[in-house]
Structure formats: structure tokens, C-alpha cells
Amino acid sequence: MTDLRIVNVPDLLAAQAAKDGEPVHGAPATGVGLHTNGHLGADLLHVPAGERFAVHTHPGDHLLMCMEGEGTISIGEVTYNVQPGDLYLVPGMVPHAVGAGTRDHVLMAIGAPHRPVASPTRMTHTDWDGNPVDAPVYVGDGDQ
Question: What's the rounded Cα separation, in Å, for the pair 100 and 92?
Fold first, then answer.
């Protein structure tokens, strides 16, 4: 019989992701792994107020849910505001960027294939066409 692990997400939110989280590879954020079976996994990510991820891709699909704070998701060079309770899907290999607003932004990220938050294979910095780049591209820095 498989042991079942239950995680109460509200108990973990911003405080634990910020305090106990490990750095997210390639981004100004911290994260806590919640669950993984080696293919599908869930993480809690904390993006401090005013910080943002460069344009990037992931090897697989990601569901993201805003748990706390405010933020943005930019995809297809269009930026959308998100607030607690908003859920969205970013398909694998689609360039996108996430940012925090004036308050810390806490997201639950569920992805397959799953990569730990500190893994160098979790994300690849790209331009809006999905081409890998040496220098990160940011939303609002003349890249649109």
C-alpha cells in the first residue's frame, strides 16, 4: 500500500516559501517542493514584491495558481494581471514571464515533467520566439 501525504497549502504559504524555500534556479524567487512522483509535481513559489522572472520556457506544461498577493503572467507578449484564486495553464515550451506587483506573489506551480525548483533544467531563458538567449529578456525592457 502506498502512503498518502497530505499537504495543507494555506499553512505553508508565503512565510514558509520565503523563509524555508530554496532559490529558484534562474529567477529571483524561492520555492518549496510540495509533492512529486518523479513525473508530476507541485511547488509553492514566492516572488518578492517588484521582482520578475525573465522570459523563459519549461520542458512541460505548468498549471499556476495565484495563492497570495498580486502578480502578472506575460505570454504571447501580452501581460495579464493575476490575483488570489486565478488559475492558468502555460503549455510546455511556450515563452512566458511571471512578475510580482507591489505585494509578494505566491504561486502554486504544478508541472509535468516536474523539475525541482533548484534544478538547472527547470527553465531556459529565451526570447519571445523561444530561442535560448545568453542575456535574459524581461517584459517592459524594450523586448515587446
Answer: 22
* DSSP character at residue 118: T
| 120 domain-assigned | no
Give me the number of domains the chain comprises.
1
Q: Residue 144 pLDDT > 50, yes or no?
A: no
Residue 109 in any domain: the answer is yes
Could you tell me the residue range of the domain that residue 48 belongs to?
A: 9-115
Label residue 106 exposed, middle or buried (CB < 10 Å: 0-12, 13-18, 19+).
buried
Say if 128 falls within a structural domain: no
Taking CA atoms, 98 is separated from 7, 22, 38, 88, in Å, by 25, 18, 25, 12
Q: What is the pTM of this model?
A: 0.87
Specify the CATH number for the domain of residue 84.
2.60.120.10
- What's the number of CA atoms in the CB half-sphere (13 Å) around residue 83? 0
User: Based on the number of CB atoms within 10 Å of its own CB, is 117 exposed (0-12), middle (13-18) or buried (19 or more)?
Assistant: buried
Domain assignment present for residue 144? The answer is no
pLDDT digits (tens, 9 = 90+) for 79-121: 999 999 999 999 999 999 999 999 999 999 999 999 999 999 9
